[in-house]
Amino acid sequence: MWLLATVVLALPLSLPLASPAHAVTGSEAAALTPQDSDNALDVHAVRRELDSFQAAQISLRKAMAIAEALHFGAITADVSFDGATEPAIYRVKTMQRDRIWQHSIDASTGEVIGGEAPSSLASLGAEDRDNLAVLRALRHRLADAVRVAERTTSGKAISGGLMRERGKLNFVIVVLAGSDLKEVILEPPGARRR
Q: What range does the record give for the signal peptide (predicted)?
């Protein structure tokens, strides 16, 4: 059972896709005007990205499961779709014990592309280490938050990650529902800073 209400914001398609922790707010979106010279290019780039995402054969949740299966006991800390690459991929960061793994998963086949050496949790900043320690202790996982966000919005998740706000660690999921991008913020039970 999730502790908080779900917050859903519609994001206009003219926005560049951002990782969930840096999603654009409604007031920032209002600052973008059709007169911006880069706006037409951004709209086309976003449309191409979303078309690529809709054509993907592998879901974001499946990409997370593939990456987690590569390292026994790994859990996903961040995932995003990248349709600007060829082939389109999901970028998945997983955590296993004291290591962070970054994997690229082909969005059409589910194949792991390339190999990344792990980085140490010790190489991260204090806030990131703290967030990952809380994530590791939680019963709920990012995959659970993605499932809730997709069900709540009747959409398909395009990215997900962690964000700390006012001492609370939240899952932030961006979902494509129809032609709208929606940001869903979920606070899992037990995520408050002690």
A: 1-23
